[in-house]
Amino acid sequence: MKSAELARRRHAAVAPAAYSVHPFYPERAEGSYVWDADGKRYLDWSVGIAVMNVGHSHPKVLDAVHRSSSAFQHLCFAVGMHESYIEVAEALARIAPGPSPKKTFLVNSGAEAVENAVKIARVATGRQGIVAFTHAFHGRTHMALSLTGKAHPYKAGFAPRAAEIYRAAYPYVYRNPFGLTDEDAVADAYLAQLKDLVKTTIGESEVAAFLLEPVAGEGGFIPVPERYLRGLRAYADQIGALWIDDEVQAGMGRTGHWWAVDAFGLEPDLVCTAKALSSGFPLSAVVGKADVMDTVKPGMLGSTFGGNPTGCAAALATIGVIEDEGLLERARTIGVVATERLRDLQRRVPGLGDVRGPGAMIGLEFVRDDAKTPDPQTVESIVAHAREDGLILLPTGTYGNVIRLLPPIRMSDAELEEGLTKLEAAIVAATEGTLAVA
């Protein structure tokens, strides 16, 4: 089989640190499906970790890429800025959260967007302190891994880490330590804890920015309560700090809105976007309030490949597809259908502790008992069962006990039904003997 030969070559030539969840070798992809080197077809509910939101090989994206790459490959914006860079900045200003005028800086990856947002926040405020959160993932570069919350496999072994990084508790409703069940009460408790940390450990006058994912991605698809986000916005304003909204995984329509914070009508100072922005072509952005972005002098930020014309063309086409095909509404519909069905399954599977998430960004947390002991083994089994049945799933979570659902937001009703049926079958197979009577 071709896959076996590729595995042999990989072992001989590729660094072992380059890990893959699934032991297959994709060869082509179209719409909601991927085919591996041996010809097996999979329904893809990973979409490259929230990258191919509009599906694989969308003809409008590919056409834009072909036209751009045949005309102009690269110069570097530090030499001369091409028109598509400006067009992407204009498009992002139009869809960015909140009414303030916006400006954009383009780079290549989510980690680069986060790093530049930190640089901008420090210049804009004249302060150095960055408050990040537990369960956070912001990337793997030095600053980004310092901001990331999970030691293994992201941070351990890579010291020393960046200075002036502080860690607050992420508002994890399902695992809150306060013994509370009311979401607003949980939010208030976490906010009080955050404010005490800042006042007693950091100093309010030292905080440049709070950096928060509105739905924690690698941490376990954990949505932040609206009340907490509103409280964070108010507290940042009160102490003269900025709010950096990391929407690298949650943005670009995944939650049923352009940005997860749009559901609450909130406006961050800076937004980081990447992944689905350009449908698989390297591009990321920091989109910020114009008065904040204008504090950074010319030449203080830069990137050789940032804003590459092909990436910009892909981004403009992706934004157009989401708008023209009504994919924000489609993501909300997918979320309603999937969540309703999975919560029905939850009543029959005692180990399925929580079903959560907005839109088509759904997390399934598996536990062993009423104490909510994480159960990563069951998650591994479900992922393996699903793969054998032709469904690509991904595990996630600080404790490895969450399955994240990232279906294409352009998928058909038939594909949604296929995926849910295969997912249910994998869960039932992995939890056989523990099912409750329906």
Broad shape: globular
SS-derived structural category: alpha/beta
Major sheet strand order: 4-12-11-10-7-5-6
Strand tally is 17
Residue ranges: pLDDT <50 for 5 or more in a row? none
**Biggest beta sheet summary:** 7 strands, mixed
Distance between the termini: 43 Å
- What is the second-level CATH architecture of the largest domain? 3-Layer(aba) Sandwich
Query: Share of helix among residues?
Result: 25-40%
What is the number of independent domains?
A: 2
Rg calc: 21 Å
Give a verbal description of the structure:
The chain has 438 residues and is of the alpha/beta class. The protein has 2 domains: 2-54 and 326-430, Aspartate Aminotransferase, domain 1 (Alpha-Beta Complex); 61-171 and 206-215 and 239-324, Aspartate Aminotransferase, domain 2, CATH 3.40.640. It is 40% helix and 16% strand. Helix 3 packs antiparallel against helix 11 (309-324) and helix 8 packs parallel to helix 9 (226-239).
Short description:
The chain is of the alpha/beta class and 438 residues long.
Keywords summarizing the entry:
single chain; 438 residues; alpha/beta; Aspartate Aminotransferase, domain 1; Aspartate Aminotransferase, domain 2; four-stranded mixed beta sheet; 40% helix
Write the layout of secondary structure elements.
Elements: H1 2-13, E1 26-30, E2 33-36, E3 41-44, H2 47-50, H3 59-71, H4 83-95, E4 102-107, H5 110-125, E5 129-133, H6 142-147, H7 151-155, E6 165-168, H8 183-202, E7 207-212, E8 215-216, E9 222-223, H9 226-239, E10 242-246, E11 270-273, E12 284-289, H10 290-293, H11 309-324, H12 327-346, E13 352-356, E14 362-366, H13 376-388, E15 391-392, E16 394-396, E17 402-405, H14 413-430
Parallel strand pairs: 3-15, 5-6, 5-7, 7-10, 10-11
Antiparallel strand pairs: 1-2, 2-3, 4-12, 8-9, 11-12, 13-14, 14-17, 16-17
